[in-house]
């Protein structure tokens, strides 16, 4: 008997807070927008892709962000609206998917295992993504694969506002060429330590004995 294949979809609303703000203030589209503290205090909650081109990113001190992108438009955030749109997306997914996990206000995992008996899972996932965009007006990226962590990485590669499927049996083809910085959880301290011992891709890590990794 053939083993049942797993299908896990990961959905992530792109620059969620900024995307909601652009729905409320469409005149800001195409401009560098930062949602966070004041121009001199606090940290960046999220920012538009126009701001990211200047090196701005989430969790960056606002003072640093404004030095990199002094022309940025800073918004304190409309958090009640963020909750409203997050619930809207949650309700859509809950109505379309038998089993899902809401990982954060803008991130969802959907277990579609077994649905391949009734639907083309890839088309169903893409259709769900398109339906969310149509109903909410928000951009959302999605990854589909056999495992949660692979789907999340696929989503990251699909951004902004895209879809990427990693077929069963093609996991290594997708993962191994990626840089180590693509691995969820590897931060600014771990990355240089790994690169210092010659590990630059996921394939490098896969071929490295556990004892060496534990020592470093």
Automatic annotation (TrEMBL):
Keyword hit for ATP-binding: no
Boundaries of every UmuC domain copy: 8-187
Keywords: DNA-directed DNA polymerase, Mutator protein, Nucleotidyltransferase, Transferase
Source organism superkingdom: Bacteria
Protein name (database record): DNA polymerase IV
PANTHER family listed in its UniProt record: DNA POLYMERASE KAPPA (PTHR11076:SF33), DNA REPAIR POLYMERASE UMUC / TRANSFERASE FAMILY MEMBER (PTHR11076)
Keyword Calcium: no
Protein family according to the UniProt entry: Belongs to the DNA polymerase type-Y family.
UniProt-listed Gene3D superfamilies: 3.30.70.270, 3.40.1170.60, 5' to 3' exonuclease, C-terminal subdomain (1.10.150.20)
Pfam name, any one: IMS_HHH
InterPro entries (UniProt xref): DNA/RNA_pol_sf (IPR043502), DNA_polymerase-Y (IPR050116), DNApol_IV (IPR022880), PolY_HhH_motif (IPR024728), Rev_trsase/Diguanyl_cyclase (IPR043128), UmuC (IPR001126)
């Amino acid at each position: 008997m053939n083993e049942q294949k797993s299908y896990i979809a990961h959905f992530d609303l792109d620059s969620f807070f900024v995307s909601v703000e652009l729905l409320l203030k469409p005149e800001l589209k195409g401009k560098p927008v930062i949602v966070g503290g004041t121009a001199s205090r606090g940290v960046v909650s999220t920012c538009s892709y126009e701001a990211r081109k200047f090196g701005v990113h989430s969790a960056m001190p606002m003072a640093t962000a404004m030095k990199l992108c002094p022309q940025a438009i800073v918004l304190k955030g409309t958090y009640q609206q963020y909750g409203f749109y997050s619930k809207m997306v949650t309700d859509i997914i809950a109505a379309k998917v038998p089993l899902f996990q809401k990982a954060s206000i803008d991130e969802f995992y959907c277990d579609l295992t077994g649905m391949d008996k009734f639907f083309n899972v890839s088309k169903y996932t893409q259709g769900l993504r398109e339906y969310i965009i149509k109903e909410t007006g928000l951009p959302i990226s999605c990854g589909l694969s056999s495992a949660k962590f692979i789907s999340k990485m696929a989503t990251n590669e699909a951004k902004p506002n895209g879809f990427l499927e990693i077929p069963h049996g093609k996991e290594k083809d997708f993962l191994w060429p990626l840089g180590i910085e693509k691995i969820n959880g590897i931060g600014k301290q771990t990355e240089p330590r790994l690169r210092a011992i010659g590990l630059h891709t996921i394939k490098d890590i896969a071929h490295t004995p556990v004892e060496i990794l534990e020592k470093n």
